[in-house]
Amino acid sequence: MKPKITIGLLCLAAVLVWTGLAGAQTAPPTLKVQLPSGETVWDLSGDWDAFIENYGPSAQDGTYPNVYRITQTGNAFNAIRLRDNPPQVQGRAGTPSLQGELEKSGFKHVEVVKGIGTVSPSTGQISEDGRKILIDNGTDVRVTLTRAGEPGKIKAMLLRPAGWKADWSGYGGIAKGESEFLFEARGDKVVVKIQNFTNPTACERDVTLTSDGVKFDGCRDLDITLRFDPNDQDYPFKGKSLSGDSYKVKAK
To answer: Of 31, 45, 71, 142, which residue is least crowded by CB atoms under 10 Å?
Structure first.
C-alpha cells in the first residue's frame, strides 16, 4: 500500500503546484504599490489610451486620441506622448504630457503639460478600479485616460459629460440635419439621450457596445452603427443606419 499512497500524494502535490501556477498566470496585475512610508498609492505605470478634448479658448484645436506612457517612481509620475498630436496642435511623440504626485486618496497634484511645453495645474480623478483617469485643467483641456487595450476604452470616450454632435444625411445627401447624443451609464448598461434639432424629436435608447464602436436605434431611424476612427481628428465616430442614412459624430 505504501507505494500507492506515495504516488497518490505526489500526484496531489503536482496538482496543487499546477493550480498555484495557473492562478499566478491568470491573476490580474496589481494596480497599487506600497511606498517606503507604508502608504499605498495607485500604480499608474504603463501605456494609456488618451482622449484629449480642447474646449473654451482652445476649442479650435479639436478633439483627438493619443497614447500616453506613464513612468512612476514612488508616488511621483510623468508621462510622454507616444504619437504626434494632429498637425494643428503642437506636441511631438516623446514630449512630456503629464506630471504629478499621488497620495492614498488619488492625486496629490497633477499637471497637464501642453505641446508647447507650458505646465497647467489640473484636477484629476481615478476610477475605483484604477483603469480610468479624468484630468481637467478647468480652462481649456480635458484628458481621459483608459488602460491601453481595455475593452472599455470606447465606452469611456462616449460617456463624456458634454455629449456629442451628430451631422446626418440621407436620400443621397438631399436631407441633412443635426442631432445631439448624450451617452450615460445606467448600472451595467449604457443608454443614449437623443435630441434631433432638424426634425424636433427627443428620445432615449439602449446602446450596444461593439469591439470597434457602438450601435443603437434613433428616435425615427433604426440600427445606427458607429465605428471609432482614431485617425479622424474631427469626427472620431462615423457610420450608417439601417435605412442608409450617414452619420458623422464629433465631441461637443
So the answer is: 71
Between the alpha carbon of residue 119 and those of residues 112, 122, 140, 146, the distances in Å are: 6, 9, 13, 22
C-alpha closest to that of 49 among 148, 151, 141, 165: 148
Q: Coil, helix or strand for 244? A: coil
pLDDT in tens, 79-92: 999 999 988 899 99
Range of the domain at 232: 164-251
Would you say residue 8 lies in a domain?
no
* Residue 97's CATH number: 2.40.128.120
Predicted pLDDT at 153: 73
Tell if the pTM clears 0.70, that is, is over it. Answer: no
Nearest C-alpha neighbor of 196 from the set 162, 176, 219, 173: 219
Q: Give the cell for residue 66.
A: 493619443
Q: Which of 52, 42, 132 is nearest to 89 (CA)?
A: 52
> How far is the C-alpha of 103 from the C-alpha of 121, rounded, in Å?
17
Q: What is the pLDDT of residue 28?
A: 41
Residue 106 pairs in a beta bridge with 103
Q: What is the dihedral of CA 32, 36, 37, 40, to 10 degrees?
A: 0
